[in-house]
Design goal:
Two copies of one chain form a homodimer. Chain A has 380 residues and is of the alpha/beta class. Chain A contains 13 helices and 15 strands.
């Protein structure tokens, strides 16, 4: 059966990248690798829209998050953590594992954080060293307004640390213009690669914080990564084959253009949401991200059954709900290497699986709604 | 130009594995992945010769080393670190980064540690919690006698932690029989894969230590990895494409058989060493590992020039000296996906490059010596 990944990481990897990664392996202490790594770093700075260093770690995205915590802070420091889903909570868990005191800002699942509540916390809670936020919260399908949060935090000495793991390369993110101190990304999302690489951009202000941070670190050491980077190298053997793929993926991103990519994700998100509504179902997120659509099954459809049918009968892989949403939603990703016809495929499969489960709706209504939105946006 | 890697990691990756990793990516929360991960774990237990859990981390081998330190120890603990090269020193650096007190056992570069000196240290220095050693020290080409070290440490409450990153899948290593508490391995060595995965086996005794360890950890958390493993899962998105390759590489290892693989590496090491001597050069290591041959250039040949010619003129990539050996040696690896003809190729290229540099020897003497050893060992 032809299988298609509509999961929020890993996402589908372009065939040309898969084949490029199948070339004979190169050595990471060679002029060839140094040339590759330099080009990759130019591409990463374009992707992040920054002049800052972007450090590369061989790890899952979570490793990049841990790297941010252990390089910026000291035990006993106080930080503000926006917790509106599983990934916001992860920021808090990592900080607590290192003895960093967490001032939580809890947000109801499905809602974006109101930037004003961050401003109030910064005013009323003294001594906050850093603010941790998530751009696109994959567990709730919500997009947080990082631009406005950036404006607020920049009036304060606290650093702003952004988990853009599922956001970057899909949603607008301007690291320098929005003055984001640290931005974390991963390979298996908008970058259209297999998992295994994490990227962390570090501002001048953040480098100052690194100097006074005393949390223990070895593998995640920013300073060592920066020194190696200046020579076109990594401190430890990097995942070379993924870096070969990364060079190609960053070229593809440059060729298409970030503005075009953001617009494509917007178009696909709108089309998917409209299709879901046309089938009589709701969107879980109140301020939805363009990365993925979380379909609220309103306790009337069993999410696990629906996913099973989509996967086994139609070869369409979507994600289930996480934490308190388990079984209650499905999460359809439209991130990365996705075109209009992929969206129509996902919507068609959803219609077929819902029909199998006895859900009643006007057959074809979802596909028609999606097609209409896609056509409107393409003709602009 | 046809290029060949004779570097001690990354090593050459079999074409069939490269192509298998180029298949469309699968999702890590799917029955298909769980099945794959279960088979991989059976294969890893065979490779490690253990019934212990073998935990998988998406990272370089160094990440696996750091994981061992932060899960077994507490700040202020005292440990014995055998430092006979760059990788032994790394154990010490990681421990110190976490406030673990290092009792060093320094060994002259080029020599294996005398196991009796470990016994003496354990007797005379009170309160040692763990002993850190390196099986095959890649910076000096030395093999340490892990079996005997295991017998010594097992008479003592200290845990034995072995860096087998370049040893495993090439040199005999019997985790359970030798009672090794923690063994660390990496993907880009004997496992014939690209870099990006680290593996750590954990004994019952080591699991007891995990309970009382209080060093901070999140990404490297053993307990979380074990819980996920019991469900055929990983705590964080693993490097899926490398795991697909790992399944195939472990199958290949099982098909060839560990005993056969150890014998092959032994044969190749003997042949390479004999060839080097026939060219009038010396072997740096006194107790040499079968992983790689370090050619001592006796300050008469410039190591950097020799490597440059090998690489640019002949497409043969070997490694240079590390630390105090920079420029003074070349390191020729014969680890992983290497056959007899590859050895003859490496030796031929060495002869040609030495001739280019004006080194005088009987032309063909190296190849003849290698062929003789290979033939002798094949006919057994």
């Amino acid at each position: 059966m032809k299988k298609r990944l509509f999961t929020p990481g890993p996402t589908m990897v372009p065939e040309s990248i898969l084949l490029e990664m199948a070339a004979p392996i190169i050595h990471h202490r060679s002029p060839e690798y140094t040339e590759l790594f330099k080009r990759v770093n130019e591409g990463l700075r374009y992707l992040f829209q920054t002049e800052n260093d972007v450090l590369t770690f061989t790890s899952s995205g979570t490793g990049g998050m841990e790297a941010a915590v252990v390089n910026l802070l000291s035990a006993g420091d106080k930080v503000l953590v926006v917790r509106g889903g599983k990934f916001g909570e992860r920021w808090g868990e990592i900080c607590e594992a290192y003895g960093v005191r967490v001032e939580p800002l809890d947000v109801e699942w499905g809602h974006a954080v109101d930037p004003d509540t961050i401003a109030r916390k910064l005013k009323t809670v003294p001594g906050i060293k850093a603010v941790f936020v998530t751009q696109s919260e994959t567990s709730t399908g919500v997009l947080n307004d990082i631009k406005t949060i950036g404006e607020i935090v920049n009036d304060h000495p606290a650093l702003l640390v952004v988990d853009a793991i599922t956001g970057i390369g899909a949603h607008k993110l301007l690291t320098d213009q929005w003055r984001l101190d640290v931005v974390v990304a991963g390979s298996q999302k908008g970058l259209m690669l297999p998992p295994g690489l994490a990227f962390v951009s570090v501002s001048e202000r953040a480098w100052e914080a690194v100097k006074s941070s005393n949390l223990p670190r070895y593998y995640w050491n920013f300073s060592k990564a920066k020194t190696a980077l200046s020579k076109g190298q990594n401190p430890y053997t990097p995942a070379v084959s993924l870096l070969v793929g990364l060079r190609r993926s960053l070229e593809m991103i440059k060729e298409e253009g970030l503005e075009e990519i953001w617009e494509r994700h917007h178009r696909h998100a709108l089309a998917t949401r409209e299709a879901v509504r046309a089938l009589g179902l709701k969107i879980f997120a109140k301020e939805p991200s363009n990365i993925l659509t979380i379909v609220d099954l309103s306790s009337t459809i069993d999410g696990k059954k629906l996913r099973g049918i989509l996967s086994r009968k139609y070869g369409i892989m979507v994600a289930g709900g996480q934490g308190r949403l388990e079984g209650k939603v499905i999460r359809i990703s439209h991130m990365g290497y996705v075109d209009d016809f992929d969206i129509l495929t996902a919507v068609s499969a959803l219609e077929m699986a819902l029909t199998d489960l006895g859900w009643s709706f006007e057959s074809g209504a979802g596909v028609a709604a999606a097609q209409r939105i896609l056509a409107e946006h393409r003709s602009r």
